[in-house]
Design a protein that fits this description.
about 170 residues, mainly beta, 3-stranded antiparallel beta sheet, 13 strands
C-alpha cells in the first residue's frame, strides 16, 4: 500500500449502469479494482470477469433515498483456490429523507462488517415508488488507482480517462 492507492485499474472497470431494459437492478461491468482494508494498511486485488447485477430494494417510504453500490471483501470467508468466493457486490440502503444523502463511509463499513473491506462504486438515487433505475439515478463514485513514485505519482483520472503524472 506504500506505492499503490485504492481504485479501479481502467476507465470502464466496475462501471455501474442501468439495465438495457431498466428495472430495479443495476449492472456492474467487469474489471479490476484495488480495495483497502479498514485501516488502509493494505489493498486487496479484485477481478470481476463477468458483468453482474445488483438488486436495489423498493422504496415506499414517502421520500427518496440514496443507496451505495460497493465491492465487499468478506474476510470471514475461507477463500477457495482462486479466492474468488470472498468478493461480492452489495447495495447499502440509505435513509429516506426529503433531502437524502448517501450512506457515509462509516455507515458503509458498519453495513459490510467492521473487519471487512469495501470500495464505493456508485450512489443510486431511489425515488419513492420507483419502478426502475436509469443512468440519471446513478452517480459514479469510482476513483482511479494511483501509482506512487519516488518524486511523484501516476494517477488514472476517471474524469478524463487519462493517466496523469504529478510531482509531490
Amino acid at each position: 500500500n506504500n506505492f499503490l492507492s485504492k481504485g479501479i485499474a481502467k476507465p470502464n472497470d466496475y462501471k455501474v449502469e442501468q439495465q438495457a431494459t431498466p428495472n430495479m437492478t443495476v449492472k456492474v461491468g467487469t474489471g479490476i479494482a484495488y480495495v483497502p482494508n479498514p485501516s488502509a494498511s493494505m489493498l486487496y486485488v479484485t477481478n470481476l470477469d463477468a458483468t453482474s447485477n445488483v438488486t436495489i430494494n423498493s422504496n415506499s417510504s414517502g421520500n427518496p433515498r440514496i443507496d451505495a453500490i460497493v465491492i465487499k471483501i468478506d474476510l470471514g470467508v475461507t477463500p477457495n483456490n482462486y479466492a474468488d468466493n470472498v468478493t461480492t457486490l452489495v447495495a447499502i440502503q440509505g435513509t429516506p429523507a426529503a433531502s437524502p444523502v448517501a450512506p457515509t463511509d462509516s455507515e458503509s463499513q458498519t453495513a459490510v462488517g467492521a473487519s471487512n473491506c469495501f470500495l464505493r462504486l456508485a450512489n443510486v438515487t431511489v425515488a419513492n415508488g420507483a419502478a426502475s433505475i436509469t443512468n440519471a439515478n446513478i452517480a459514479d463514485q469510482r476513483t482511479g488507482v494511483e501509482v506512487k513514485l519516488l518524486n511523484g505519482r501516476l494517477k488514472f483520472n476517471t474524469s478524463t480517462n487519462k493517466l496523469q503524472f504529478s510531482h509531490d
